[in-house]
Amino acid sequence: MTKKTRLGNLPPRYGFMLNPYPDLRISSCPRCERKTGQRKIPLLIHIDPLHLIALNYTCRYCKDCDLLIAHKHEIEHLLTDLFRQHDPNVIGNDYLIVGTLEKQAWREGLAQPKAIDETFPHASDFATYYQELRVTRAGWYKSDQEPPIAEPPPSREWIKAEQSR
């Protein structure tokens, strides 16, 4: 049996899913179909090559599934605004939302930025990382016909400068 490498010193929490559809708001859980609430939590985001950001973000939350759902376009908008001021060359780089951070550690990091080795004792990775949300296209289909999957639109803000021209 192999031991899974964990991020941070805290036990894994939450399932996590990213919603790539800008015009689709999640009011019910894609797993159990019950109503979702909201949970504001610092998400830990790794951006290539070596950036680690804690972004206090309001996710949709299903308490029954313990599932956080973040909206990709909102995250990318916030990251674009942040890096436009600090390091515009990072905009458009690959990123991964890797876990959460304790609220107190996030607050302390706002006042005095912390090194990565000081952050990890307060970090928790996700218990389950689900694939990006996919939905079927709306419309009428024959009973034996499977509705096609709607392709999410490409990012409008989180793109390299040379691609946006």
Structure description:
The chain is an alpha/beta fold and 165 residues long. It has one domain (13-164). It contains 4 helices and 6 strands; from the N terminus they run ββββαβααβα. The chain has helices at 72-86, 103-111, 116-119, 161-164; strands at residues 13-19, 37-47, 51-62, 67-71, 95-101, 123-129. It has a 6-stranded mixed barrel. Strand 3 and strand 4 (67-71) form a beta hairpin. The protein is globular.
| Helical residues, percent | 10-25%
Rounded mean pLDDT is: 90
Q: In one word, what is the shape? A: globular
Q: DSSP strand (E) fraction? A: 25-35%
**Spans with pLDDT under 50 lasting ≥5 residues?**
none
Structural class: alpha/beta
Summarize the structure.
The chain is α/β, with parallel strands linked by helices.
Quickly list its features.
30% strand, alpha/beta, 165 residues
Helix-strand blueprint:
Blueprint: E1 13-19, E2 37-47, E3 51-62, E4 67-71, H1 72-86, E5 95-101, H2 103-111, H3 116-119, E6 123-129, H4 161-164
Parallel strand pairs: 1-4, 1-6
Antiparallel strand pairs: 2-3, 2-5, 3-4, 5-6
